[in-house]
Every structure is written in C-alpha cells, then in structure tokens.
Automatic annotation (TrEMBL), chain B:
Annotated source species: Nocardioides immobilis
Region: Disordered, residue numbers: 1-39, 61-111
Biased composition annotated in UniProt, kind: Basic and acidic residues: 1-11
Protein's UniProt name: Uncharacterized protein
Top-level taxon in the UniProt lineage: Bacteria
UniProt entry keywords in alphabetical sequence: Membrane, Transmembrane, Transmembrane helix
Entry's transmembrane regions: 40-60
C-alpha cells in the first residue's frame, strides 16, 4: 500500500526537525549517563536538557553524525564544572516529565551506584564514560578536555576507591 | 571477572528506565532561548555600565536576539575548554603583549561563570605549564582571584627576572578572560583594568584545584 508521508513543519526548520529526531532517538541514552552522574531522576533530566539547550544552536554546524559526541561533551563538562553552583536548588526545566519523578531513587541505587556517588566528580565522569559509555581512554580524554594520562590516573583512583568502599565490601560479604 | 568487567555490568544493571518525556526537545529549545536572555541580564548586572555597553554593542552587531540566525556566533562556538593564548619566546624568555597589560575597557574582576581555566606561560622566564585545563571548581578559582587585594599601578619594582604566568578563563559562549601574573619585578597580577597583589596566590589556587581535580 502506498503511503503518503505528510510532513508537518509547523513553521519550523528542517534543522529543528533533525534536532527533535536526535533527541527522540538518543535522549534516553543521555539520560542514563546523566542519572549515573547525578543519582536522581529529575536532576538527570535537568542535566540532559541543559546540555541539549547548550548544544541546540550548534545542530546545523556540527551535523547529525557528530552531534551526539558534541552533546555528550557538553553534558559531562557541564556536570563537572557547574554542578556545585547550578544544581543545588535551581531547576531550569519548566516542563516536568510525564512520569512522576517521585520514584524512590534509593531503591534503584544499588551499592555500586551509592559508592559511585562518593567519588569526586571528575573520577565519576571518567568512570561513566569509560565503563558505561564504553569510550576509549582517548575518547574520554577528548570529552573531558584532559589528557590520556589523567584519564588513566582518574580511572585507577576511582577503581581503588570503589574496591575499598565499605558499601561494596558489605555487598561482597553479603554474598559470601 | 575483572574489576573493569564487573564495573561495566554493574553500571548497566543499576540504571533505571528513563522517564517518558516526549517534550524533551521542545523544553531544551525553550531553555536555550531563556538561557541567552538570562545570561545577558546577569552579565549586565555583574559588570556594570562598561560591560553593559559592550554587551549591547555585541548584541546589536550580532543582529539581535534571534536564536535561529545561522550565522550566530554563540551557536558556532564549540563547548569551550579554554586554550592558552599564544606567546613568543626568545632565548628562554617569554615576551609580553597587550594581553598582559591592564585594559581600561575591561572589568576590574574576573567575570563569574567561567567553566574552564588553564595555567599558561606568561611574560618572563619559562616554566612547565600543566597539560590539563581546570574544569572543576572554576568558580572557586574565580572567587579566589577576585579576592586578592587591589593595588594601584606599581611604583617600585625590582630589576630581577623570573617566571610569569597567565590564567585563561573560558566561558560557555566561547569567550575568554586572561589574567597575567609576574612572580618577579613588580610582582603584580593584572586583572582586567587594574592590578592586584599576591600573584603567587592566584597560581597556587589554580594548582591546588588542579591537583584535586
């Protein structure tokens, strides 16, 4: 059956449509990383939307192939450099997600995530990029604007801290 | 199972399902438009009349507040991790330039909102600059630099030569602000339109934060 595709532009540009499609396709993936960084549903949504807002204007220049890497870099650097000042109380999002965000995050925060939350922001960002996003050391360095040696040392420190975390030791003991 | 594999699997298992949010793109767009207006107002309120003239001039020359302009320079700037300004080095001595002198049109303090900072070579003898930019607690560094005592133009300077440094601050809109310190001679830190004392404190503040980053 022949299908007729009706494109509803609503006065919006093709670039904006592309941005919308990107957000629809990759927004949840960005949210997952943001949740690991923040440990909170709404803060994760705020972080994603702030990163998207900062990146929105660059859509036409960066293009669809490179835009995810661009947004990811904005998301992580925003988290690292602005967290302390911007995210303690201010919620820049006017629109709340459809789903209620009163989920008790502690239920989802297993001991590993709780231990992750104890890491310094820089180490936490490296861990999420390396072990959740599966980026290489070089790609992680590029995202965070640091050198590969720093990525290695941050990873090493983070793994040492996680290994020695009482939360994870307790988990190990529970399974013994 | 290796630590790395354990971590990969643990993180993948820990993440909850994302909430449904079909309005995410629209909300980001609205936030982008609000951010631009809010940022302009914050700059106006912070740096006063001189900066206000600069902001208005920039706004006028960029064609106003139409975020859809394809030639919008704010849109063209990549997420900034600031780079060091160039500096010429002859016979082991870095040469100063206008960037190391007070600029009467600049504010007298480092503007708030910096998202990255780099310790760079300044005029004087060379030293090993760190490879990494500072991206954590940059606002704390800004506050510490701005808390250094303001001084007038130096009147008494020794004739020695030593290392000079710059700290380049980067902002979300791609702009930069550079302070220039001399750890010799007049021992001043040039910040915007004036001088401050204790340049070594500014350098130490940067290095301390970089060490814990």
């Amino acid at each position: 059956m022949e299908q007729m595709v009706v494109r509803v532009t609503d006065g919006r540009s093709a670039g904006t449509d592309g941005f919308d499609a990107f957000v629809a396709a990759r927004g949840d993936a960005l949210w997952r990383s943001a949740w690991l960084l923040t440990g909170d549903h709404q803060l994760a949504e705020d972080l994603v939307q702030t990163a998207l807002a900062k990146s929105w204007r660059a859509w036409a220049r960066v293009g669809p192939d490179s835009f995810e890497a661009y947004v990811r870099r904005v998301l992580f650097t925003t988290y690292i450099s602005w967290w302390r000042r911007k995210w303690r109380g201010e919620r820049p999002t006017a629109e709340l997600p459809e789903k209620a965000t009163t989920t008790v995050d502690t239920d989802a925060r297993n001991d590993l995530v709780a231990a992750l939350a104890d890491l310094p922001r820089g180490q936490k960002a490296v861990v999420v990029l390396r072990y959740f996003e599966d980026l290489t050391e070089q790609q992680t360095a590029d995202v965070l604007g640091i050198n590969v040696g720093t990525v290695k040392s941050q990873c090493s420190r983070a793994l040492t801290a996680l290994r020695s975390s009482p939360r994870l030791q307790r988990e190990d003991n529970d399974h013994e | 199972m290796s630590d790395e594999q354990w971590l990969r699997e643990g993180l993948a298992d820990a993440v909850p399902p994302p909430p449904t949010n079909p309005d995410r793109a629209r909300a980001a767009e609205r936030l982008a438009r609000r951010r631009r207006r809010t940022t302009s107002l914050a700059v106006l309120g912070t740096v006063g009349a001189v900066a206000a003239v600069a902001v208005l001039t920039a706004t006028l020359t960029s064609g106003g507040d139409d975020p859809d302009r394809p030639d919008d320079q704010t849109a063209a700037d990549p997420p900034p991790v600031v780079e060091c300004p160039p500096i010429k080095i002859h016979d082991g001595t870095a040469q100063g330039s206008a960037i190391d002198q007070p600029d009467p049109d600049a504010p007298g303090a480092v503007p708030e909102g910096a998202t990255s900072a780099r310790l760079c070579q300044g005029p004087g003898t060379t030293f090993e600059v760190p490879d990494d930019a500072l991206v954590t607690d940059v606002d704390g560094l800004v506050a510490e630099v701005n808390a250094l005592p303001e001084t007038g133009e130096p009147e008494v300077c020794t004739m020695d030569l030593g290392p000079g440094f710059r700290i380049a601050f980067g902002y979300d809109d791609g702009s930069t602000f550079v302070v220039s310190g001399q750890l010799y001679g007049c021992r001043t830190l040039v910040v915007g339109n004036g001088y401050r004392s204790e340049p070594e404190a500014a350098q130490a503040a940067f290095l301390a934060r970089l060490g814990t980053q």
